[in-house]
Amino acid sequence: MTGQTAPFSRFEWMIAWRYLRAKRAEGGVSVMTWISLIGITLAVFALIATLAVRSGFREEFVDTILGANAHVTLYSALRVTETGQTTRTISDYVDLAERVRAVEGVTRAAPLIKGQVMASHRGATAGVEVFGIAADDLATIPRVAQPLDFQGDIADFDNGVAIGSGVARELGLNIGDRIQLISPNGVKTAFGTSPRVNNYDVVYIFTAGRYDIDRTRVYLPFTEAQEYFNREGVADELEVMVENPDAVDDLTLPLLQAGGDNALLWTWRDASGSFLRALDIEDNVMFIILSILVLIAAMNIVSGLIMLVKNKGRDIGILRTIGLSEGSILRIFFICGAATGIIGTALGVILGCLFAIWIDPIFSLVNYISGGGVWDPSIRGIYALPAKLELADVLSAVALSLGLSFVVTIFPARRAARMNPVEALRYE
Amino acid sequence: MSDPVLVLESIEKTYNKGAINAVPVLAGIDLTVARGEVVAVIAPSGAGKSTLLHIAGLLDTPDAGRVVLGGEDMTGLSDRRRTRARRGDIGFVYQFHHLLPEFTALENIVLPQLANGVSEAEASDRARALLEKVGIAHRASHRPSALSGGEQQRVAVCRALANAPKVLLADEPTGNLDPGTSDAVFAALMDLVRTTGLSAVIATHNLELAARMDRTLRLKGGRLV
Q: Residues A296, A297, A299, CA angle at the centre, nearest 5°?
């Protein structure tokens, strides 16, 4: 009777399971197994949590850029007017906007007047960026029309100004207050240009979700802005939103064609590309560092397994004597090591996912324990630490952890399999 | 004499061969064991009887000579093939019981059968029957640490016979037991061997036990006489 068994037969699992559960007195390595298990769990947890926070941060960052800013800004190259002056303004902005809207993939094109002025209220002053925009167009900026938080009514926009919550806080403004805008380029007189000082009712206060926007942005009705900035009959640029901002580069050619000879483009990628690239590089470096963490944790499995193999030398000799093949021995010890990797990885995934889901209370707790100030929106740009679980991130963490634990397990398992049974029993 | 079950031909073995501290252990062993025959090998400690049994049991390879098991020449076969022969055709009993401490008496006898492709239920039945024969069926669910020396050795004998091998190799199976227990275990072993019609090579230095076997050989100067 010389029967054969398939690899990973039940008895191999049975022996491996007993060894995993064996107490230290019986030559098992339960303490070491626990340490490896905790190591792998923490490493996978750290990997998933970090990847989730990175994705969340990136998404929130891009979202706030795209939700409150132009995906593409179409502006004019410097040209000489009939009166011999140089200008960048666009005079046929209504037609131009129509032509740009007709481009496939464009969802909206709004003429804009832009200027930086000083805002003042009851003695407090702040530099702000004024966007002159039509009420209909303002209502289509997602992060302004549907902000995180708002006061007043955007429908009243024609009767006043809409300001970011940071501006309101800085100047102590509320709905109904009057904000004073002071521009150095005001009325041109025989004695030079005198500053222009206008007062406007605050009708709408929004929180777009980005610190820099909320802290500096003021929206003024378009016709009012034309008058205020001496732009009668012209616009500074066209704020273009597109269906798929990720593929914005595909629209470059049609937009330039629609824009005419003088048109120039400035996409959101041009504006934030270097930051996003830096974020990518940081993501990759972070992944490498955390992979090393997982590798170190996997090494714990190796030391645990080497101890197990050493302690079980006599058993290996017996098992070889009663006819277990080298393959069987290899698989038994491989299962012992891999089980630690699998269970540790599973626990790490669960912890990592829970962390990503419960990030707000966890973050609050950390903030509370450290006495606050863990997250400074003026540095990060966004207000909270977001986390976003991506299936691909979780899968890459799982693949990395399992791959490493399986690979490192093979070496001690192979050593066990190649043990000479006679030698193994001789020294007992 | 019927067909020989185990034939050793001109077996030679030297440890540290070629080195200055070379130890010649076996110098031309010839042994033929017939079906159902029980051979005693008597030798003082260090004479090489364990080495002889390891070579006969395909755990070790000789420097020269042939091992023929059940008519098949095992010399130069792959480890895989030798392992398969060890699993199905050879049973081993050591001086120390060498049971697996994490497994119960029953499981220790079931394991070799599972490795040989026998179903769990069938293996359990056979293990129980073997334990019954050596009179310790009531200890089936105990781990080796909870068994007495005699009981442990009986379980070891049952394990060696679990896959109904062609030949049993025992290396001083009762050498570690007190005289009373030793007799009882030896009796149980012989009973099993006789009832199953098995061939056996049993190394011992107990002349009284050797006298109860079919043939007695002495290992002297690396040769069997």
A: 65
- CATH code of the domain covering residue B8: 3.40.50.300
The tally of domains found in chain B comes to: 1
CA–CA gap between residue B155 and residue B134 (Å, rounded): 8
Smallest CA–CA distance, residue B92 to chain A, in Å, is: 7
CB contact under 8 A, A425 and B98: yes
Range of the domain at B42: 4-220
Residue of B nearest to A22 (CA): B102
Asked if A158 has any chain B CB less than 8 Å from its own CB, the reply is no
In a domain? residue B225:
no
> Who among A14, A22, A422 is closest to B60 (CB)?
A422
- What is the nearest CA distance from B180 to chain A, expressed in angstroms? 25
Query: Residues of B numbered 33-62 whose beta carbons fall under 8 angstroms of chain A's beta carbons: which are they?
Result: 54, 57, 59-60
In a domain, B150, yes or no: yes
- Per-residue pLDDT of chain A (428 residues), as tens digits, is 446 788 888 889 999 988 887 765 555 556 778 888 999 999 999 999 999 999 998 888 888 888 888 999 999 998 888 888 888 899 899 999 999 999 999 999 999 999 999 999 999 999 999 999 999 999 999 889 988 889 999 999 999 999 999 999 999 999 999 999 999 888 877 788 888 999 999 999 999 888 889 999 999 999 999 999 989 899 999 999 999 988 888 999 999 999 888 899 999 988 888 888 998 899 899 999 999 999 999 998 898 889 889 888 999 999 999 989 999 999 999 999 999 999 999 999 999 999 999 988 888 888 888 887 777 776 666 777 788 888 999 999 999 999 999 999 999 999 999 998 888 887 65
Residue B174 lies in a domain: yes
Q: What is the pTM (predicted TM-score) of this model? A: 0.79
Rounded CA-CA distance B75/B65 in Å is 8
Virtual torsion, Cα B161, B162, B164, B166, nearest 10 deg? -50
CA–CA distance from A292 to each of A27, A48, A295, A336 (Å)? 30, 14, 5, 22
What does residue A242 show for φ and ψ, rounded to 5 degrees? -125, 165
The alpha carbon of residue A38 is apart from the nearest alpha carbon of chain B, in Å, by: 25
The answer to whether the beta carbons of residues A142 and A107 sit under 8 Å apart is no
Tell me the CA distances in angstroms from A377 to A69, A165, A166, B34, one per residue in order.
18, 13, 11, 90
B71 lies in a domain? yes
Q: Contact at 8 Å (CB) between A175 and A122?
A: no
Q: Largest Cα–Cα distance of chain B, in whole Å?
A: 54
Reading the block at residue A357, the tokens are 């889901």
Q: Which of B93, B94, B111 to mutate to test the interface with A (most CBs of A within 10 A)?
A: B111
Distance of alpha carbon B201 from alpha carbon B184, whole angstroms: 19
Nearest C-alpha in B relative to A426 = B50
Q: Could you count the other beta carbons within 10 Å of the beta carbon of residue A362?
A: 16
